[in-house]
Amino acid sequence: MIHSLPIQKNPDLLVFVPLLFTVWSDAVLTPTEINALHSLIKKQDWLREEEREFLIEQLNPSHPPSAEDLKSWLQEIRKVDVSHATNLAAVGSALVANSVGVVRQEAQKALNGVEETLGLIPQEVVFSFYPESRKSLTQGQVTQHNFDVELLAKQLDGSHANLIAKVKKILSDPEFAYIDTDNLTEQREKVLMWAKHLAKQGFGSIAYPKIYGGADDMAAYFTIMETLSYHDLSLVVKFGVQFGLWGMSVYFLGTEKHHQKYLKDIGTLALPGCFAMTETNHGSNVRGIETTATYNHQQKTFTIHTPNVNAQKEYIGNAALHGEMATVFAKLIIDGKDYGVSAFIVALRDKQGNILPGITIEDCGRKMGLNGVDNGKISFNMVVIPKENMLDRFASVNEEGNFTSPISSDNRRFFTMLGTLVGGRIGIPRSALAATKSALTIAIRYGDKRRQFGPEGAEEVPILNYRTHQRRLMPLLANAYAMHFSLQYLTDRFIKRTEEEMQEIEALAAGLKAFATWTNTQTLQECRECCGGKGYLSENRIDALKNDSDIYTTFEGDNTVLMQLVAKSRLTEFKQEFSNMNVFRILNYVADQAKTSLSEMNPFVIRNTDDEHLLDPEFHISAFRFRERDILTSAAKRLKRHLDSGMDSFDAFNVCQHHLVEVGFAYVERIILEQFQLAVEQTKDEGCKKVLSKLCALFALSQFDKHKGWYLENGYMEGVKTKAIRKQLNQLCWEVRQDAVPLTDAFKIPEACLSAPIARRG
Ligand SMILES: Cc1cc2nc3c(=O)[nH]c(=O)nc-3n(C[C@H](O)[C@H](O)[C@H](O)COP(=O)(O)OP(=O)(O)OC[C@H]3O[C@@H](n4cnc5c(N)ncnc54)[C@H](O)[C@@H]3O)c2cc1C
User: Fold this and answer.
1) Is 277 close to ligand 1, i.e. is its CB under 6 Å away?
2) Where are the beta strands (DSSP E) in 49-203?
3) pLDDT tens digits, one per residue of 706-730
4) CA dist., res. 343 & res. 443, Å (int)
5) Quick one: the chain helix, strand, coil %, rounded to 5?
6) CA–CA separation, 603 vs 598, rounded Å?
7) Mean pLDDT along residues 58-76
8) Which of 348, 555, 657 most suits a substitution to test ligand 1, by most atoms within 8 Å of the C-beta?
9) Within a 10 A sphere around the Cβ of 307, how many other Cβ atoms?
């Protein structure tokens, strides 16, 4: 076509070549496009009739140009310099000018507006001729090093940096290399061997008093749990069952005689044991358990008995193979009277591993994950244990055979007893956080180097540069940092606790456990998908992390049930806060609320879309606090209304159940943001502070985006503001992307633990 006669006779026809190339290069000409181009050509009255016919023939779908034709047209176009051209008309004119020097005006104008007619983007079309000159923003985004990773890592590790380094070193030892087997026996033996290695290092007993071989350092125990969670989670759970559940139940529910007799051997794993609370018919509802411990005053013994098959202990870690003893939760019966749930030490096996008379143990078999842990069912048939085996810190039987307790209320005793076991609800979310960090490290490293698509003809783009990929991963990365600081806070509160603070700490632990483990499950799924097919391969680790940590949302308290506990605790506090106030303070409180409403909910603020305002930490925390207070107050009012109308309290709570779960979420989210903001404030290094404050804002804005329905419903924000928040959120994701790899580097996960080919550097 280019060298055909009509063009040789009238080089101005060259002006149409870029257009013809463009319409044919996507192979199909639709009838609408053909009609539009015909009418454009027919309007060119500066051309002769046969020239117009020649052009129309070039659009004949029965005679499309060959691939060779298209290549030669493109070669011709690329001979001219169109670096400043912005549309087809300019490229066409340059082509003519290159051939004959001058371009007549009609030719210059012939293609004006043709892109609009064909629905094309002018600049995009020009780039298709010179893809190498294209400089898209999306292509240009790369990982940068804007802050000192070592400093941030140091901040994250805190005062336990040496211990963390020690644990990581052990996990990187060849002895701790993952094993690839489906054989349950092999997996369980390996995990037991690993746990014994850890016990030898003194890690198992670290929380116990020094006289029993420990270091009296509870915070160190949680740090170990978290660090171990970069490795096989079966090991973490085995470790947690032995030294946490079994050991801590003896430590916290027992008294000195129990500590002396058992703690040392528990800490070295010389005495493997179980924590047997759950029964087939009673999981979340612990008070409903049916196993009995009947006191026999003459013999000074208890008889432990499983009254029916659904009262057998189920899912019990360490039971199927290794446990020699167990803390068994059972209803204490004295003279036929039920004194509620207490805990007893019951021997299960002898030192040779033989199951003792009266005890039946069944293996739970293969599970969705955590197959290195030997979970089992246990039944007791009139098993007699000595009186001193009752863990008697909160309840006991005196010399006369009567029940005694320092806590008279059954209810309070029960919750005090369970409250002492709150440690599990600190260890598990910290373990979940480590799993979250591992998955994010894998997905973000992969996203940084995996390339797919790109501008036509140009180099493909790292998938982490795509806005959806950023929106999927960056808020989760912000969440992980947010969880890190709030779980540090929880640990700290727990370590320094006073008796009066215990109820608040229990609620905090329940709420953060639920939030962290749910976030973990969500993060692992997103990371799996973000790695495409590679994420599905077991060698890339997300498989094991997902399967092993999934149950975290259920054990140590089912999350939905826990959120209701949080809500009940918040309602109790709310009631106390009001009943403790005198009239004058109530008036002040109401006036303060009104002031807040005026300052935060005036027409200017609810529509304020200024960047400065949207990124202001003060705005963030005020909005979180407003939501928390409003949901709590409305839940209280709603419950009161139902109760006042004569509704049964059980029904009233059930009617408000969704509302109560939201009370829990709003509380926990406020705490998380507060702790994140505090951590940012306390960061000294400017580079680290800058990146952390971006992450903190990202956490806040992603929560607003999640709850925008609520903020709109309640008039706290208008549509313009929630839209501006979304835009700002996308922008922050775009900015944080460049720090994302270093931000995961700061987790300092041992490469031996990550062990995912897609996460390898280089
Ligand atoms: C791998 C594994 C290891 C375990 N290890 C141990 C162990 O070592 N020792 C031990 O004692 N236990 C252990 N457990 C048991 C675990 O603690 C329980 O599974 C858990 O407490 C939940 O109880 P459940 O399974 O009976 O569920 P259920 O309590 O029956 O709950 C089922 C569903 O009902 C919902 N639900 C329940 N009550 C309510 C309510 N009031 N309102 C709204 N929804 C509700 C829950 O949200 C949940 O979705 C383990 C479990 C597993 C799977």
Assistant:
1) yes
2) none
3) 999 999 999 999 999 999 999 999 9
4) 44
5) 65, 10, 30
6) 9
7) 86
8) 555
9) 13
Query: Nearest residue CA, atom 24 of ligand 1?
Result: 283
pLDDT for the residue numbered 560: 98
The SS3 call for residue 181 is: coil
Structure-token pair, residue 486: 């709030």
Confidence of residue 58 (pLDDT cuts 50, 70, 90): confident
Question: Does ligand 1 lie within 6 Å of residue 558's CB atom?
Answer: yes
Angle at the Cα of 274 (from 273 to 275), degrees rounded to 5? Answer: 140
587 band by pLDDT with thresholds 50, 70 and 90: low
Query: Ligand 1 pocket test: which of 238, 281, 284 has the largest number of ligand atoms within 8 Å of its C-beta?
Result: 284
Q: Which stretches of 647-757 are DSSP H helices?
A: 649-655, 657-682, 686-706, 708-713, 719-745, 751-754
CA distance 509 to 498: 15
- Rounded to the nearest angstrom, the distance between the alpha carbon of 419 and the centre of ligand 1 is 17
Select from 310, 516, 300, 527 the least CA-distant residue to 426: 516
Q: What is the DSSP letter of 357?
A: T
Best CA proximity match to 570, nearest among 513, 519, 511: 511
The strand pair at 461-462 and 451-452 is best described as antiparallel
Q: What angle separates helix 467-495 from helix 657-682, to the nearest 10 degrees? A: 90
Q: Tens of pLDDT along 335-368? A: 999 999 999 999 999 999 999 999 999 999 999 9
At 2 the pLDDT is 72
CB 731 within 8 A of CB 438: no
- Pairing verdict, β 325-334 and 273-276: parallel
Give phi and psi for 164, each to the nearest 5: -60, -45
Q: For Cα atoms 166, 167, 173, give the angle at the middle one, nearest 5 degrees.
A: 95
317 lines ligand 1 (CB under 6 A): yes
| Cα 171–chain centre separation | 24
Q: Is 565 in the pocket of ligand 1 (CB under 6 A)?
A: no
Percent of the chain with pLDDT over 90: 76
pLDDT class for 590, splitting at 50, 70, 90? low
* pLDDT category of residue 637 using cuts at 50, 70 and 90: very high
**In this predicted model, what pLDDT tens digit does every residue of 215-247 receive, in sequence order?**
999 999 999 999 999 999 999 999 999 999 999
Q: Which residue has the tokens 């507006």?
A: 113
Q: Which residues are catalytic?
A: 556
Task: Determine the Cα–Cα distance for residues 318 and 332; give it in Å rounded to an integer.
Answer: 24
DSSP letters spanning 486-516: HHHHHHHHHHT--GGGHHHHHHHHHHHHHHH
Task: Provide the total of helices (H) and of strands (E) in the chain, helices listed first.
Answer: 34, 14
CB contact at 8 A, 549 and 521? yes
pLDDT, mean of residues 121-149: 87
253's enclosing H/E stretch is helix 247-253
- Which atom of ligand 1 sits closest to the CA of residue 557? 21
State residue 578's pLDDT score: 64
Which residue in the block uniquely carries the two structure tokens 């149950």? 551
Q: Yes or no: say if 206 and 214 are a contact pair by the CB < 8 Å rule.
A: yes
For residue 573, how far is its CA from the centre of ligand 1 (angstroms)? 27
**Helix or strand (DSSP H, E) at 383:** strand 383-386
Question: Quick one: tokens of 327?
Answer: 């803390």
Is the beta carbon of 375 within 6 A of some atom in ligand 1?
Answer: yes
| DSSP three-state, residue 685 | coil
**What's residue 584's pLDDT?**
65
Could you tell me if the CB of 203 is within 6 A of ligand 1?
Answer: no
Query: What are the tokens at 265?
Result: 């051997």
